[in-house]
DNA sequence: ATTGTTAGTGAGTAATTGCTTACAAATATA
DNA sequence: TATATTTGTAAGCAATTACTCACTAACAAT
């Protein structure tokens, strides 16, 4: 991975995340990265290939996170850790998550598979805790999660993240 | 509002909602509506004007909903009604809300003002119920709301809406 | 040193984009 | 009925789009 490849990925992520995939021409990415437009296609084949490369990097990060999660042994702690995830997203990863969430709304790119491993972990933990309907309970938590993530990623500078998390913590006690 | 104007708006909403505003060319809208492309610009000036017209219609619908909400006099009922809103969205309005939520993720179109009146109503109700930090509590509920809406609009056919709502209802009792 | 491979450029390309314009048909107004 | 206004079309426009291609520069392997 050369410097220029990294520059292309960085610029693409930044632009895709703020304006949306379809609104960003490859010419703009090249300009932002200080690179000729042709180089994008040399390295990533086409515009969709760029997006794939971006998602690949992100998915690897996510997988690490999931493994860390599976280290937690108490079911309750596991659920809490999942619910608080959006509040602990590293700020440098905001662009990636903004991109993921924005793509969800476009039929063509919608990819549900990303959330599945988390759902499985949740169901397992909820079953262990003898919840009556672990699946519905898991889907409800995942819905919360989407909401928290949206709020953090979109209104992070308006809404007080810490105060929100504090209020949330009081709820499950 | 002529038949063809309505056809244009319908087609635009359908396409924008499923593919995203930037991914849909005016030519595709015209074709879907069975209309010449020029007519779009005659009636709506430009592509952004089309979007504005769409949002205008939607905002009027929303305003009606808000007035219905203010009719509820018990603060508790008001909060419950707000929290359950996403589960009671009329299915014919799904495209509109999908469009709204997809636009949130694009800097250029992001419009926060739409959620404000709801936040005010929430804060008022929570203050009446003597919550310690009504603002944070309101923001938390709004975060839930975003999550519920996302789930209903995006996974409405995968996740069992009614079962989810039932599970949610058990929580606040 | 020579050769092969990869990294990088810049000028193209055909197709598509949002939008305009000249004109015709329909409809309202007098 | 005559006239003005609105609704509609088809062709065309400059600009932009994703992508290609011929080429050079850098670097590695033999």
Note down, in words, how this protein is organized.
The structure is a homodimer. Chain A has about 170 residues and is mainly alpha-helical. Chain A folds into two domains: about 1-55, Arc Repressor Mutant, subunit A (Orthogonal Bundle), CATH 1.10.10; about 70-173, no CATH class. Chain A contains nine helices and no strands. Chain A has helices spanning about 5-20, 25-35, 35-45, 45-70, 75-85, 95-105, 115-130, 135-155, 160-170. In chain A, α1 packs across α2. The first copy, chain A, is elongated. Chain A starts with a helix and ends with a helix. The model of chain A has no long low-confidence stretch (mean pLDDT about 95). The interface of A and B includes residues 106, 158 and 168 of A. The structure holds a DNA duplex (30 and 30 nucleotides).
Short description:
Chain A is an all-alpha fold and 173 residues long. Chain A has 9 helices and no strands.
Distance between the termini of chain A: 48 Å
Question: What class do helices, strands and sheet pairing of chain A give?
Answer: mainly alpha
Report the strand count of chain A.
Answer: 0
Given as residue ranges, the uncertain stretches of chain A (5+ residues, pLDDT < 50) are none
Radius of gyration of chain A (Å) = 18 Å
Seen as an oligomer or otherwise, the chain set is homodimer
């Amino acid at each position: 991975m050369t410097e220029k490849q990294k520059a292309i990925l960085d610029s693409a992520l930044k632009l895709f995340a703020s304006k949306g995939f379809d609104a960003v021409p490859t010419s703009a990415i090249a300009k932002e990265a200080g690179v000729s437009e042709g180089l994008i296609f040399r390295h990533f084949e086409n515009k969709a290939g760029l997006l794939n490369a971006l998602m690949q990097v992100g998915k690897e990060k996510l997988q690490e996170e999931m493994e860390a999660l599976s280290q937690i042994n108490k079911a309750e702690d596991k659920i809490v850790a999942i619910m608080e995830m959006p509040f602990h997203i590293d700020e440098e990863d905001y662009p990636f998550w903004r991109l993921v969430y924005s793509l969800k709304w476009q039929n063509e790119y919608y990819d549900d598979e990303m959330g599945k491993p988390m759902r499985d972990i949740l169901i397992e933990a909820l079953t262990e805790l003898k919840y009556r309907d672990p699946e519905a309970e898991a889907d409800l938590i995942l819905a919360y999660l989407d909401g928290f993530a949206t709020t953090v990623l979109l209104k992070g500078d308006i809404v007080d993240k810490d105060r929100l998390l504090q209020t949330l913590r009081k709820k499950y006690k």
